[in-house]
Specification:
Elements (H helix, E strand, L loop, with lengths): L6 E5 L2 E5 L2 H4 L21 H8 L9 E5 L4 E4 H11 L6 H11 L6 H6 L5 E7 L2 H5 L13 H16 L22 E3 L10 H4 L8 E7 L3 E4 L6 H11 L15 E5 L1 H8 L5 H11 L1 E3 L26 E3 L7 E5 L7 E6 L11 E4 L3
Parallel strand pairs: 5-6, 9-12
Antiparallel strand pairs: 1-2, 3-4, 5-7, 7-14, 8-13, 9-13, 10-11
């Protein structure tokens, strides 16, 4: 459809812009940035959008969600346009649809995450057989570049948030610092390297189902431990290394925390008979500080859910993580190297966000 001039056409009442080859060759042309995330986009030509729509059985006019905070109407067709711009293949499109459904679930509170001055961003965790079918990276460099599925599925959500939800940096999106996951933030769980049940099974799905779970996360904080060989020792090391997230006096935290345990660490812990529940319980029981250490002082005045440490028993041990249920554990990353990561969550409770899981359909 390329012509000598850019033209506008319509695919089922939604404008689609077609760019000529000469525009694609001009890297200085502002139309390269029409995706609003600052990166070049794939022009959503009629043919490309139709191919994307062929990746799902859902009719183009079906409303999938209304995207906060502007509550733009995310029809199947509009999501296909954004998926094209992000660089998705058509067989990724059912994943994108499930991701948008999860992100727009009120429990996930995308409205709050979109406007907060914090640095949270939806982290997409893919589980099930679809990981291998689409080439979703679960192993070495899992948070990094090099895999089209991870890069473009995560980017598609961000473009939807900007183009349909209005979450443009510096306008609605007012994060003080942001983090690189606001470009794209999508990983797979390395189920084959895990001694435990995968996340989606733990959350009620069947082992053969493919799902996405969205977690409201800051950037990953990497924890090194090359020496601990006892499960209790290693879990304590991982937990205390994360004691400073949010703030070193934020005890308890306000919401969920995600642990991405590397396969070598997971093998050490699992080989000694520890279940995933044991890991969570140990983190909850171990990482505690006396209330007297949390009062405002020369080392800081920030607090957590314990709003008034001075009124508490000064010797009471206050947990870093508010409950066992608000600790999430997955296994991901390469099989070489004794590294894990913690992904701090955003606000929890009634005004915050909860992780949300959706089954990937057709």
């Amino acid at each position: 459809m390329a012509s000598s001039e850019a033209t506008a056409s319509t695919v089922a009442r939604f404008p689609v812009v077609t760019f000529p080859v000469k525009v694609m060759d001009n890297m200085d042309d502002e139309r390269w940035n029409c995706g609003a995330d600052g990166l070049p986009v794939v022009p959503p030509t009629r043919e490309r959008v139709e191919r994307m729509l062929a990746g799902t059985a859902r009719p183009r006019e079906v409303l999938v969600a209304e995207v906060p905070p502007s509550f733009g109407r995310a029809t199947v067709e509009k999501l296909a346009i954004n998926a094209v711009m992000a660089g998705c293949r058509p067989d990724y499109f059912p994943v994108v649809l499930a991701v948008v459904e999860a992100a727009c679930d009120p429990a996930f509170n995308l409205h709050g995450q979109s406007g907060t001055t914090n640095a949270t961003s939806p982290l997409i965790i893919v589980n099930g057989p679809i990981r291998a079918r689409l080439g979703v990276n679960c192993a070495a460099g899992v948070f990094g570049p090099g895999f089209r599925a991870n890069a473009t599925i995560g980017r598609a959500l961000r473009l939807v948030m900007i183009n349909l939800g209005g979450t443009k940096a510096g306008e609605i999106s007012m994060s003080t610092l942001g983090h690189p996951g606001r470009y794209t933030y999508c990983i797979g769980e390395h189920e084959e390297a895990s001694p435990w049940e995968p996340l989606h099974v733990e959350r009620g799905s069947k082992p053969g189902e493919s799902t996405v779970t969205l977690f409201p996360g800051e950037g990953p904080f990497i924890v090194n431990d090359h020496s601990s060989r006892e499960a209790s020792q290693l879990v304590a090391s991982l937990g205390w290394s994360a004691a400073g997230v949010w703030n070193h006096k934020s005890f308890p935290l306000y919401g969920h925390t995600l642990w991405v345990i590397g396969p070598e660490h997971a093998a050490t812990i699992g080989s000694q008979g520890w279940s995933k529940r044991d890991v969570k319980r140990s983190l909850f029981d171990t990482v505690r500080r006396p209330a007297r250490e949390l009062v405002p002082g020369p080392d800081g005045a920030e607090s957590g859910r314990l709003r008034d440490p001075a009124s508490s028993d000064p010797n009471a041990l206050i947990p870093k993580f508010p409950s066992v249920e608000e600790i999430m554990v997955i296994v991901a990353g390469g099989t070489a190297g004794r590294f894990s990561a913690v992904v701090p969550g955003w606000m929890g409770g009634d005004i915050g966000a909860q992780p949300v899981t959706r089954t990937i359909g057709a």
